[in-house]
Amino acid sequence: MNDVMRLLTQHRSIRKFTDDPVDQSTVEVCVQAGQAAATSSFIQACTVIQVSAGETRDKLAEWAGGQAYVSSAPVFMVFCADMKRHALACDMHQADMLSGYTEQFLTASIDCALFAQNVVTAAQSEGLGICYIGGLRNNPQAVSDALGLPDLVYPVFGLCLGYPDQNPETKPRLPLSVVLKQDTYDQTGDEATIREYDQHVRHYYETRTGGNKSMTWSEQISGMLQKEARPHMLPFLQERGFLKR
Amino acid sequence: MNDVMRLLTQHRSIRKFTDDPVDQSTVEVCVQAGQAAATSSFIQACTVIQVSAGETRDKLAEWAGGQAYVSSAPVFMVFCADMKRHALACDMHQADMLSGYTEQFLTASIDCALFAQNVVTAAQSEGLGICYIGGLRNNPQAVSDALGLPDLVYPVFGLCLGYPDQNPETKPRLPLSVVLKQDTYDQTGDEATIREYDQHVRHYYETRTGGNKSMTWSEQISGMLQKEARPHMLPFLQERGFLKR
Question: Which residue numbers in chain B have pLDDT < 50?
């Protein structure tokens, strides 16, 4: 395993940052690393809104479910899937844009994720810690209004950046045999493997919380999936011009 | 800029590979680097199907629009968004799973993208070249059938891996000012910047193709967006149990 692989496998989310500021030049070089990621048919559909500390940031933290580090992180960015730029390209050539396709929503969202993961790796290579904030999707309309996002742009997730002031363990992942399959999808053996893995996860939570949390992976997942999953997302996205066909 | 950032910014897609085989241990360590990426609420919704060379691979190459390197690359993987594993977790706990939410489709797809981008970075750190294959979505039903994907699993994209037998230039990306914005989304100035960028892209294509292709970014995008974008995706995904609400 080389240094880059070691960096990647040592990832854990950081939710507590030192007061050390992050140079804007570091932010910019990280975003440029993000831009260098592969982009579907060259669409480059990711726009990053860097949000300075203050009122808007505090509101974002609240909408994300009261995640205080959204407010206090030295750097906070919102990754937006952006087809408005493509509407502009169409205007520049008097072209009628066919929008609203599920495929476009998917490629724009994936573009953002590939881009963001490069930003994350670049940041971590500089000793920064990160935390993705999917909680912005609790209230995507309010987030969009606060950032002035036009139609054809939506906030996919946020990202906190800063120098770590904590050193959590990495969280154990599913065994490789469950995740990497040969030639066909075959679930044989997965249940037994997940039952074994469940005990590692239980141990991880118990150790990390001094026994306060004791939960397996399958318990956590099955608990979560008995609840609605942000049912406002489909009408919100359609209203913004996505997922209409 | 450190070594990791240099690695990230030097990315270009590789479509021609040497005959040198890729050790399976290298594939596995890359996939483990993928697993280490952040995962929304710990869902770990990515399953990778590694497809050996042969008949299935040839068919995938054809369905992807006749991309021969899908067939000939030393390693080919299909990244699948997988909620079937979560159905299993629910079965293990006699829980009724609420599926079909747009939010679940989005988090599972993003999980795959974050995972894949780590695989890509890990592979490139070992001197491997890569090419994402979105073309599998030309015919996602045939791909799903060939790989035996059950409901609640869909092929997001493929990935070719191998040692590069070509050395293409990196493709120029949009200027940073278009992509990184402060506090609010503001398109002022973007059109002028894109017009300038367009000339870099034209120059890139002209140089690379000996003058055979001469196209700007905005021309390419506006041309693409006048056509339908895989209109089969929405009914396909709904049929597989996604995007139903």
Answer: none
Question: Is residue A230 within 8 Å of B103, Cβ to Cβ?
Answer: yes
Q: Which of A26, A138, A222 to mutate to test the interface with B (most CBs of B within 10 A)?
A: A222
Entry pTM: 0.98
Residue written as token pair 């363990």: A169
pLDDT > 90? residue A66: yes
User: If you ran DSSP here, which 8-state letter would residue B160 be given?
Assistant: E
Pinpoint the alpha helices (H) of B36-189. Answer: 55-63, 68-72, 84-92, 102-125, 140-147, 176-179
Task: Provide ipTM, 2 decimals.
Answer: 0.98
A53 in contact with chain B, both atoms CB, cutoff 8 A: no
Cα–Cα distance, A190 to B194 (Å, whole number): 50
**pLDDT (average), residues A145-157:** 98
Instruction: Inform me whether the C-beta atom of residue B55 falls under 8 Å from chain A C-beta atoms.
Output: no
B113 contacts on A by Cβ (under 8 Å): 109-110, 113-114, 117
CA distance A228 to A58: 26
Provide, as residue numbers in chain B, all residues whose Cβ is less than 8 Å from the Cβ of A183.
49-52, 56, 147
* Largest CA-CA distance found in chain B, in angstroms, rounded: 63
Place of tokens 């506006």: B222
Check B8 against A156: CB less than 8 A apart.
no
The answer to whether A194 touches B89, Cβ cutoff 8 Å, is yes
Backbone torsion region of residue A95, taken as left when φ is above 0, otherwise alpha when ψ lies between -120 and 50, otherwise beta: beta
Instruction: Kindly state whether A229 is in contact with chain B, defined as any CB-CB distance less than 8 angstroms.
Output: yes
Q: Which residues pair with A181 in a beta bridge?
A: B49
